[in-house]
Amino acid sequence: MMAQKRVTVYLLSGFLGSGKTTLLTKAIDHFTEAGRKPAVIMNEIGEVNLDGQLVANEVPMSELLGGCICCSSRGDLATALHELVTGEQPDLIFIESTGIANPMEIIDEVTDASLIIPVELKAVITVVDAPQLLELNRTSRGKTYRLMKEQIRCANLLLLNKTDLLTGTALEEVDALVREWNPYATNHFTVFSQIDMRLVEMLEEEGREAIHLLDEQGSHDHEADSRTSHEEHEHEHDHAHEHGSHHHHSHSHVMAYTHFFERAVDSNAFEEFVSKLPQEVYRAKGILSFSDTSSRFLFQYAYREMDFVKITPKGEVPDVAVFIGENFSRNAVRDALLKLESMFDSDTKS
Ligand SMILES: Nc1nc2c(ncn2[C@@H]2O[C@H](COP(=O)(O)OP(=O)(O)OP(=O)(O)O)[C@@H](O)[C@H]2O)c(=O)[nH]1
Predict the structure, then answer these.
(1) What is the CA radius of gyration of the chain?
(2) Are residues 100 and 56 in the same domain?
(3) Ligand 1 pocket, 50 CB below 6 A?
C-alpha cells in the first residue's frame, strides 16, 4: 500500500529566551501567506501559555503545560499530535519545546508517534542565543552550556540569534564554536530570528529529494544528498571556511529517515540489514510485516542491539521504519531497504 500523506513536523529547539517564539510567529505568517495550514504544539514549563498569546487565534494550537515534554509522561506529545492531525488536518506542525528540553527525548517521542500517526519529523531547528552561548563558553560551561550543546548538535538548521548584541569578532567566535559542535547544519546569523523561510521549506523538501530549491536562485551552495564520506565533509567544511561562508549546506546530517514499506520484506534479510547499519545510525524503530511471518512486529534498535516484538497495531498503521542518527546517508539506507523490498517481487503482502 502507498503510505498516506504525512504531516510535516518541525521541532523548534533552543534555550530559554533564545528567540523560538519570535521565529515561530514569523514562520506561521510565512506559511499561512503561502496558503498552507500550520498548527502548533506549545510546551511550557509554567501552568500558563504566555507565548501562545503571540500566535494568531486561527492557528490550531495544542498546549502541553506545567512541565517539560521530555520529562512529562510519555505519550502526551503523541496524543497532542494525534488530536491536531485528526481534528485540524494541518499541513505542518511546529513543536516549540521548552528552553530546557533535551531535544533527543523529543525526537524520540515524535518518531515513536510517527509509527502510528501520519506525521513525519522533518527537521530540528535550533535558535541559539549567541551572546549567552559566548558568555557561557568563556565562563561557567555548566549544565546550561551542555544543554545548549545538545540542542545545537541535533539541529539541521541553526539560527545564531541576537547578533545585534555582538561585535564582528564575537560573531566569528560563536560561529566557530557552533560549527565545531555541528559541522553539518547550516548556520545563519539572525536578529529577531529573521531568516529566509525558504530555508525552512527546503528542510521539508529534502526528504523528497528536492534539495535544489535555493540553487535555482543561484545564491547558495548545496552539497549533493548522496555525498556521505567524512573526507568530503571535511573538505567541504574547510572549503566553506576558506571563503568565510556562513552558508555551509550539508544534507547528509540527517537526524531521521522515515521509510514506508510498500511490501513485506524477508525477516532474516531485514535483520542482516539492521546488523550492517552504519554506526552513525544509533537508533531505529518500526512496525513491520515480514514475508515469512504471519504476525506484524514492532522493531527496536538501539546501541547496536535489536529487538522484535509481535504486535497487532490498532487501526490502520502502515509498515514503516524510522532511522535516527547523525551524518548518515539517507539515500544509502533507503536504497538498501528498496532492495529488500524488491527481493520478492511476487510477494505483495502489505
Ligand atoms: N536584542 C535582541 N532581542 C531578541 C532577539 N530575538 C529575540 N529577542 C527578544 O528576546 C526575548 C525572548 O524571545 P522569545 O522569542 O520569546 O524566546 P523563546 O526562545 O521563545 O523564549 P522561551 O519561550 O522563554 O524559551 C524577547 O523579548 C524577544 O523580543 C534579537 O535578535 N535581538
Answers:
(1) 20
(2) yes
(3) no
Q: What is the DSSP letter of 52?
A: G
Long-range CB contacts (within 8 A, 24+) of 276-281: 277/301, 277/323, 277/333, 278/325, 278/328, 278/329, 278/332, 279/304, 280/325, 280/326, 280/327, 280/328, 281/323, 281/324, 281/325, 281/328, 281/333
Per the prediction, the chain carries an average pLDDT of: 79
Say if CB 160 and CB 190 are below 8 A apart.
Answer: yes
Ligand 1 binding pocket includes 192 (Cβ within 6 Å): yes
Which residue, among 10, 54, 1, has the nearest Cα to 204 in the 3D structure?
10
Read off the amino acid at residue 54. L
Structure pTM? Answer: 0.74
Share above pLDDT 90 across residues of the chain, in percent, rounded to a whole number = 42
Residues 322 and 237 in one domain: no
Exposed / middle / buried, residue 106 (Cβ in 10 Å: 0-12, 13-18, 19+): buried
Range of the domain at 82: 7-242
Where does a domain end: 203, 219, 242? 242
- Does any domain span residue 105? yes
Q: Could you tell me the maximum CA-CA distance found in the chain, to the nearest angstrom?
A: 64
Q: Which of 284, 313, 314 is nearest to 299 (CA)?
A: 284
* C-alpha of residue 271 to centroid of ligand 1, in Å: 47
Q: How far apart are CA 272 and CA 277, in angstroms?
A: 9
Distance 46 CA to ligand 1 centre (A): 17
Using DSSP, state whether 293 is helix, strand or coil. coil
Task: State the Cα–Cα distance between residues 101 and 96, nearest whole angstrom.
Answer: 10
Q: State whether 228 and 260 are in the same domain.
A: no
User: Cell 529517515 maps to which residue?
Assistant: 257
The pLDDT tens digits of the residues spanning 146-164 come to 889 999 998 999 999 999 9
Compute the distance between CA of residue 270 and CA of residue 289 in angstroms, rounded to an integer.
11
With H, G, I as helix, E, B as strand and everything else as coil, classify residue 143.
helix
